Amino acid sequence: MRPRRLVAPLLVSTAALALLAPAALAAAPAALGATPATPGLPAAPATPATPAAFSVTATLETEPVGHSGDAADDPAIWVNPEDPAKSAVVATDKKGALEVYDLAGKRLQRISGDYGNNVDVRDDIVVSADDEAEDGDGAMHIYRIDPATRRLTHLKDVATEVTAHGICMYRSPSTGKLYAYPNSPSGRLEQWELKVSGDSVTATSVRLFDVGDEIEGCYADEKTGALYVGEEDTGIWKYGAEPGAGTSRTLLDSTGSGGHLTADVEGVTAAGTHLFASSQGSDDYSVYDRTSGAYQGRFSVANGSATDGCSDTDGIDASDKPLGPAFPNGLFVCQDGSNSTPGSSGDQNFKYVPLQRITAGL
Length: 362
What we know:
Elements: H1 14-18, H2 22-25, H3 28-31, E1 52-57, E2 60-61, E3 72-78, E4 88-93, E5 97-101, E6 107-112, E7 118-122, E8 125-130, H4 133-136, E9 139-145, E10 152-159, E11 169-171, E12 178-180, E13 188-197, E14 200-210, E15 215-221, E16 226-231, E17 235-240, E18 250-254, E19 265-271, E20 274-279, E21 284-289, E22 295-302, E23 316-319, E24 331-336, E25 349-354, H5 355-359
Parallel strand pairs: 1-22
Antiparallel strand pairs: 2-25, 3-4, 4-5, 5-6, 7-8, 8-9, 9-10, 11-12, 12-13, 13-14, 15-16, 16-17, 17-18, 19-20, 20-21, 21-22, 23-24, 24-25
């Protein structure tokens, strides 16, 4: 603690005060939100601006998933390295399929029998977390995506120790190794190293620990080396993403009083300089500085002229890569729990929001 600096009181006579014009006494600092300065003392800082709260609209939506009810859950954006305009969104229908959509929302492929709740992608490797596989013990389904066709080929299933429900992936910037982090509603998270050579996959468990109560959404950040895990009723924990990082953690943000999240905390992702988190209970998304973790504001995806908005959202994903003329500054994708009009209504689906509509409001 710094020692307190004592300042002698400043005495001003009544006669001197009378010489001050009334207008000067009611000057601008109050209008600016700052406490008026006392002569001889530094002026108090202006009241910080309230972080942004705003809404955006989507420009496109995917075809609905094949099952009715609470079926759609989590999207993952795959960026085509040869032609970004021909990128794809891989998304889960947790009642029994993995969906692949183009950037116009048209279905390119439907893989039946995959009950994945969450999905993620790194490079050309796609992994879904299926908590109904292995007779309910859970497994990761590992695929490769073909850049020419944007279709997935199944490579291997890997049984996990955590009844895989949520998942995220990470390519270590220091070693180049590929990792997947399946996790479960029991609060356990496991880290697997994946070695893919041709169609051969070797999977090795390298870390296993308890986060707390129910978890699902997670994001491993190659830019900062952080692993973010959403504990649904509590908030977002920040761990190290490397396998030797142990279990040391800090709380990025929380639900309840003093926090900016509303249970259930669901999807977590990042793009550009921003980190995003889905608050299912308030139908909106909190935004943080990707480096410092500072809270930057919140937004919702509202009904627009082309599609309805996103509500009761589970998974989200985002990319700041230029993805052709429809999304020249990147893309934000959210799962919509109640697909209605405008646009084509029906079973649940996913909405596409140009990323600049979000970043412009922050």
